[in-house]
Amino acid sequence: MTQLQVGFLIFPGVVQLDVTGAYQVLSFPQNTDVHLVAKTKAPLASNEGLILTPTVAIADCPQLDVICVPGGGMGQVEAMRDTETLEFLQQQSVKAQYVTSVCTGSLILAAAGLLQGYKAACHWAFLEQLKVLGVEAVNERVVVDRDRITGAGVTSGIDFGLTLLALLCGEPVAKMAQLMMQYEPEPPFRAGNPQDAGEDVVQPLMQLGQPLVEAFGVQTRASAERLGGQAEI
């Protein structure tokens, strides 16, 4: 059986669960080689402080069947303006079977010009920034539009991974991965979206994340200008 090459682009400040949730799912089949791709192979810290060790540098990365871009904190703003990173994504996308993202990773794909003309998901707090980049932002947990597959915020990486695994290896394999993980979520609260969480939860969270919202806003406008788009927030 042909080995599938799956790569997660990681960078300083990446959200670790954006990576590890989908990684857990996609590493389940024996016919997948899963890579952590970064500018260098030096260990880097996630947004939460977890140390991740890249397995391959961008310059040495094989052609991937699946490229996945997770989201991140302030480090993502740097990734969105980094020419080497964007060119890597553009080059890989030419022959990749699927070009994908989790959470605000869709903003990085959009900054590389790889989501224009596609529907895509993003973390709920940054859907407007995605629209600025000329993408049809969709408030859904997983969005499949031809060869683009995008997941919403953080934990949706597991759902994203199962959706992608079913496309790559068939539904029975994806179901086995789900069973192996005992993925049958029953959260203690109905607070996983702003409508259910209520203003008393949403507003303090938005205040906490305001520096990131502002940083993404500045970066998406700059990226939109570079892509020839127009900001319409």
| Helix-strand topology string | EHEEEEEHHEHEHEEEHHHHH
Strand order of the largest sheet: 5-2-1-6-7-11-10
Overall average residue pLDDT:
95
- What number of domains? 1
Which sheet architecture does the biggest sheet show? 7 strands, mixed
How many DSSP E strands? Answer: 11
Describe this structure in words.
The structure is a single chain. The chain has 233 residues and is α/β, with parallel strands linked by helices. The chain has helices at 16-26, 74-81, 83-95, 105-111, 127-132, 156-169, 171-181, 194-197, 199-208, 210-227, and strands spanning 4-9, 32-38, 44-45, 51-52, 56-57, 66-69, 98-102, 119-120, 136-137, 142-145, 148-151. The chain has one domain: Class I glutamine amidotransferase (GATase) domain (Rossmann fold), CATH 3.40.50. The chain contains 10 helices and 11 strands. It has a 7-stranded mixed β-sheet with strand order 5-2-1-6-7-11-10, with helices on both faces. The chain has a two-stranded antiparallel sheet with strand order 3-4. Helix 2 (74-81) runs parallel beside helix 4 (105-111) and helix 2 packs parallel to helix 10 (210-227). It is globular and about 50 Å long. The protein starts with a strand and ends in a 6-residue tail after the last helix.
